[in-house]
Design goal:
The chain has nine helices and eleven strands. The chain has about 270 residues and is α/β, with parallel strands linked by helices.
């Protein structure tokens, strides 16, 4: 499991939603929530109804998340890719809107072009005997087609706003969004083909062993009449499908969210030089 990746994802998520990072150290992330994020995540509807009805200011919670297994016994909420909290955050991303449009904030005294980048956060799920999830971000320059992996990490220190800065203007994309998305998918698929897939071979081996055990169990059973035999075959076929669904090695791609990020040429050039 990519612990650092999950930690970075959580950090970027809360930063993007205007929460303050109180502590960020060795797999522990302490967050001061905003009113909006407290309502969204902390399941306190009656509290917020009460303070709003009385016109009082709310007191959003401060929460700690632990992504480092070695610190899971410490005070805070231990999270991993399969934990309910992470799935809850994925759901909020969908309800908040999966696409956004943001502009890098710059100080310019003359007309300055901003370059469009298509940014996609992708969840990659490896499914088989063992399961693993990873969230990776990709950026595609829609002018020249340059691709950057780890886009969210690259732009995390930049300042963005939903309104464009004074004296700035956007460049018209040469690559359409749909085509850009397909390029990112093709890039991911090509990268996956070049990975070590020993996990898939191990899963296939285990799948065959399980199917052989299943065949042995049913062929060694007592002789049945025709009606019982039909039930046996139906049960065997269902168990075979369950085994195949459980151990058949599969890689699934799921878009978490994404958007158009308009960056200054200075920032874009820095990415191209990496």
């Amino acid at each position: 499991m990519a612990i650092e990746n999950l930690h970075d994802f959580m950090e970027n998520y809360f930063k993007a939603n205007d929460c303050s990072i109180v502590e960020n150290n060795n797999g522990k992330l302490k967050i001061q929530l905003t009113d909006v994020m407290d309502e969204l995540l902390m399941n306190r509807p009656f509290y917020w109804q009460y303070v709003k009805k009385l016109g009082y200011p709310g007191q959003p919670m401060e929460v700690s998340f632990i992504t480092n297994p070695e610190r899971r016994e410490e005070e805070g909420e231990w999270i991993h890719f399969g934990s309910p909290r992470v799935h809850q955050i994925f759901r909020t991303l969908k309800t908040q809107g999966r696409m956004t449009k943001l502009y890098e904030q710059i100080q310019a005294g003359q007309r300055t072009p901003l370059t469009p980048w298509l940014v996609i956060n992708m969840k990659i799920s490896y499914e088989g005997k063992q399961k693993k999830d990873e969230v990776v971000s990709f950026g595609l320059n829609l002018i020249n087609g340059a691709m950057l992996k780890g886009m969210m990490e690259a732009i995390e220190d930049l300042s963005f706003h939903s309104n464009i800065s004074d004296f700035s203007y956007t460049m018209t994309p040469i690559i359409r969004i749909k085509s850009g998305y397909q390029r990112i998918i093709q890039y991911i698929e090509k990268s996956l083909q070049q990975e070590d897939h020993d996990w898939a071979a191990e899963s296939l081996k285990h799948l065959q062993e399980e199917l052989q055990l299943l065949d042995h169990f049913y062929t060694e059973g007592d002789q049945q009449d025709s009606e019982e035999e039909a039930e046996y075959e139906q049960l065997m076929e269902q168990e075979r499908k369950d085994i195949e669904n459980r151990y058949q090695p599969t890689i699934r791609l799921e878009v978490v969210n994404g958007g158009l990020f308009y960056l200054s040429q200075t920032t874009s050039n820095q990415f191209l030089q990496k």
